[in-house]
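# step 3/5: fold
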Amino acid sequence: MLFGKWDVEKVEVRDPSLKDVMVISDKFPHTHGHHANKYMGKTKVNIVERLINKLMRGGTGEKVSGRVIRSHGRLQGKKWKIIKKVEKAFEIIEKKTGENPVQMLVRAIENAAPREDITKMEIAGVRYQLAVDISSIRRIDVALRNLVLATLMKTFNSGRKLEEVLAEEIILAARGDTANSFALRKKDEIERIAKSAR
């Protein structure tokens, strides 16, 4: 039971490309960096811990969709604080949907993970964009990053609590609500650009 509350044995990963790289375990989501700096180490880290680690991001300067992402850096290094916030977000998800929040997170990641992206190529001094398939590990990274960016953008200077916004974004992404979910809009944008670069 994750956090002593949610059964993860019945959590199902429907996307076959993500099954091998998405670890869903009932262990407390804090491995103290045991898998850091190891080849394919991320594939051994619980998906909930990977979400927690993404939430501990830096504060200023990054521009996404014309908006500057800021968090004042208050979440850096505060893993126990973030663990409590994610637990509260999961409680909100369960209360609103009546479903297992870990299953909702997995669905949100599956829906928000782009399948192709672009890379820049240079031949004879001319640069152009080329569409490429994304590896399974990067798909999860991009999906988690966009879920976290949506949370930070909606939380910053809004008076709303991080756990409420995180729960809302996970629910929207899990339900496939492209109109309201930032993560799904970013996925569509990435895939649209890649399609035009084929």
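# step 4/5: annotate
The chain has one domain: 16-196.
# step 5/5: archive (pending)
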